[in-house]
Structures are given as structure tokens and as C-alpha cells.
Amino acid sequence: MFQETAIVLTAQRLRGFQPFKTASPRHLIQMAFQTLFPILARTLRRAATLASSVESRGFGRETQRSYDNPWSTLERSFCYIAALLVAGLVSLKILDVLQFNGLVYIPAWRSLYDMMKVWM
């Protein structure tokens, strides 16, 4: 804080500001505002930067950590059903390729082979 005040006073002196020109109370109050306003602005910028940094790292007050929020039963069931559906389609495609190349043919599954030709 003292270092920032010294930086502000040095910058103002370089611009021609004379902080202790007179000792009147009005001038001292004006000098205090002219000195403290840049310090306050810089402090607010630092606080905003720190808040953004903390929020981006997941320490916000409104967000829950991912390890504290497990999937619900509905979400888990949906993922299992989707995985089973994909596995079933992949196995049907493999069966179609095997039947097309003449490696495996099961006569009872002829309607399934016909459906796979149309849709896959």
C-alpha cells in the first residue's frame, strides 16, 4: 500500500502536481482525493482480476465440484442404454460383414440380414 502511494505521488509529481504546496485544509483534502483515487482504482482492478482467477479455477460460491455431484440414476441408466444400443449396432454390422463375405450365415436370421442390408 505504501509502495503504491509512493508510485502515485511520483507519477503526479512528474506531471507537475505539488502535494505540499500549501497547508490549507481544503488543499489537503483535495490532495488526499487526488492521491487515493488512483490507489482505489488499482486495488479494485486487482480485486476483479483475483475474482476472475478464483472463479475460473472453480472456487465460485454457486458451483459445486464435480466429485460432489455424482450422476443421477436416470443419467446413468441413459448412458448404459446408449452404450448397449451402440454395442448392438456394432455387433449387427459385424454379423452383416461376416454374412456378406460368406463366413457366417444363419438361415433363421435371414430377415435380420435383409433389414441390415436396407438400413446399414
What are the key terms here?
single chain, mainly alpha
SSE layout:
Layout: H1 2-14, H2 25-56, H3 73-100, H4 110-119
Please give a structural write-up:
The protein has 120 residues and is an all-alpha fold. It has two domains: 2-56, no CATH class; 72-119, no CATH class. The protein contains four helices and no strands. Helix 1 (2-14) crosses helix 2 (25-56). The longest helix is centred in the middle third of the chain and has 32 residues, at 25-56. The protein is rod-shaped and about 110 Å long. 0% of the residues are buried.
**Helix percentage range:** 55-70%
**Strand pairing plus helix content: what structural class?**
mainly alpha
Elements, N to C (H/E): HHHH
Tell me about the biggest sheet?
none
Note the gap between the termini: 71 Å
Q: How large a portion of the residues is in β-strands, by DSSP E?
A: under 5%
pLDDT average, as an integer? Answer: 82
Poorly predicted ranges: none
**Radius of gyration, CA atoms, in whole angstroms:** 36 Å
